[in-house]
Amino acid sequence: MSTGRPSPEVVKKQLLKLKTILLEHEAAFIEALHSDLGKPAFESFSSEIAVLLNEIEYVCKHVAQWNRPVRSRHLKLGYVESLKRMRHPYGSVLIIGSWNYPVQLTLMPAIGAIAAGNRCVIKPSEHAPATAELLKEIINHAFPPEQLHVVTGDAQTASLLTSSPFDLIFFTGSGKTGKAVAEQAAKQLTPVILELGGKNPCIMDETGFSKAAIRDIVWGKFLNAGQTCIAPDTLFVHHSIYEKTLTEISACVSAFYGERPQASGDYGRICTHAHFQKMVDFIGQGIVREGGTHDRNDRYIAPTVVTDIKPGSPILEEEIFGPVLPVIPYTDLKSLLASGSLQRDALTGYIFSSNKEQIQLFKEHMLSPTISVNQVIQHAASPFIAFGGVGRSGYGAYHGKAGFLAFSYEKTDYRTYHYLRFQGKFPPYSDRNMKALKKLRRWLL
Questions:
Q1: Are 291 and 302 in contact (CB under 8 A)?
Q2: Are 37 and 31 in contact (CB under 8 A)?
Q3: Burial (CB count <10 Å: 0-12, 13-18, 19+), residue 422
Q4: Three-state DSSP state, 220
Q5: What is the pTM of this model?
Q6: Inter-axis angle of helices 26-37 and 8-24, to 10 degrees?
Q7: Average pLDDT over residues 197-218
Q8: Which pairs with CB-CB distance under 8 Å and at least 24 residues apart come from 372-378?
Q9: Helix count (H) and strand count (E) of the chain?
Q10: Given this model, what pLDDT does residue 1 score?
């Protein structure tokens, strides 16, 4: 455990160094992301680099204020208690990143950890090797190893790290691996923050249809070839607008990526061959209404829409995490919510509607920390919103001040100044003192 913390000025210097790295090596990061995921440059900058730059600037602006002690005094019977509460770093933090946004999801938690005054070890995902090696080369050259250090390797390396004596572990990834990380950390009573995923439901009621709404949903679903933890997983559409919604989705896919999305420079690729096969299996579980083509050698899955899926199919039970969108009709929102078809503790929930009652009904049903109305994805870029899950989608939150709080704990300097001293709190106890305690407990304690 660390015995102290760096000043806000030192923290700002560290964060600004990280900002400089992002700016100076922007082209290299974009190239690595394209190598790993086929990401277009625009998506690489907007969803990885730009959000990190915004986060750094926001944190630098506020970190001194967050670090200020909070002082208070409370008058009691016989004494005054004085409190000075401050945030204190945990000490050493292990950050295990994910492959789908391999720059953002490793450095975003590092920003919060650094802001709180911690030392960090980062383990990027081995499934995005070009980005992992670039992070290792650049960061390990720019920072002393006792401050910020990148370690590359496979699952065995991650297991060795999680069994090491860190003061806090931050993990982003699948629920299965998250459980393993939590179990390993529990052996040493190491606190863990888990950022997992889930089947984020997206509902479009009879009042929610518009070309703008479809455009947002298609963009959010097929961004990064669908490999986004907050992507709309499944679209539930009111039966009265079902067919025109399907037609408009197809038109929007063509407008975004052309008639041959594989030839588009604006559409990404699946990260691994194992994940590719999972997407192919999902496609076979329904009727293809859009896309469906794939190329294993290119790790390409077309933007795909499937309908008429049999109940109990894996695509309806498991997180999709890819460019396959089930579109399911419904007749009544209350019945849909009561059916159990929606994962209530998904990372987020989406609804497109202008009906206030319907929106409120959905918000009350969902347990997700964030409910996004008439918009997808965008909330995750805001440093004003705590980003995290609940239940199966994880626990703990970060971004902005939430990140500073997540990577620190409250340390209190407590003092008392007595103007009278009462002996009644010491043994031997008496009935008289018990009566006095019951009557004056608010002033005595």
A1: yes
A2: no
A3: middle
A4: helix
A5: 0.94
A6: 70
A7: 96
A8: 372/348, 374/208, 374/213, 374/216, 375/216, 375/350, 376/202, 376/216, 376/217, 376/219, 376/220, 376/221, 376/230, 376/231, 376/232, 376/350, 377/219, 377/220, 377/223, 377/228, 377/230, 377/231
A9: 16, 20
A10: 41
Look at residue 53 and tell me whether its pLDDT is greater than 50: yes
Q: Which range has the worst mean pLDDT, 15-29, 99-113, 377-391, 412-426?
A: 412-426
Is 3 a residue whose pLDDT tops 80?
Answer: no
Taking residues 362-372, what's their average pLDDT? 97
Query: Is residue 226 within a helix (H) or strand (E), and if so which, with residue range?
Result: none
**Mean pLDDT of the region 294-313:** 97
Q: What is the pLDDT of residues 331-357, one digit of tens each?
A: 999 999 999 999 999 999 999 999 999
Q: What is the DSSP string of 13-68?
A: HHHHHHHHHHHHTHHHHHHHHHHHH---HHHHIIIIIHHHHHHHHHHHHHHHHHHS
Structure tokens at 210: 């518009």
Q: Tally Cβ neighbours within 10 Å of residue 380.
A: 21
Mean pLDDT of 140-167: 95
Token pair listed for 83: 């409190």
Angle between helices 26-37 and 129-142 (to 10 degrees): 150
CA distance 349 to 343: 9
| Three-state DSSP state, 217 | helix
Specify the length of the chain in residues.
445
DSSP secondary structure letter of residue 109: H
Work out the number of other CB atoms within 10 angstroms of the CB of residue 221.
28
Q: Which residues pair with 368 in a beta bridge?
A: none
Q: What's the DSSP call for residue 165? A: -
pLDDT tens readout for residues 369-412: 999 999 999 999 999 999 999 999 999 999 999 999 999 999 99
- What single letter denotes the amino acid at residue 210? S
Q: Give the catalytic positions in this structure.
A: 195, 229
> CA-to-CA distance for 33 and 281, rounded, in angstroms?
26
The answer to whether 134 and 65 are in contact (CB under 8 A) is no
Q: Name the residue type at position 180.
A: A
* pLDDT at residue 4 greater than cutoff 80: no
Phi, psi for residue 433 in degrees, rounded to 5: -70, -35
**Could you give the 3-state DSSP secondary structure of residue 233?**
coil
C-alpha distance from residue 360 to each of 23, 93, 329 (Å)? 42, 39, 20
Share of the chain above pLDDT 90, in %: 95
Tell me what pLDDT residue 257 has: 98
Look at residues 193, 196, 187, 192 and name the one whose alpha carbon lies nearest to residue 163.
187
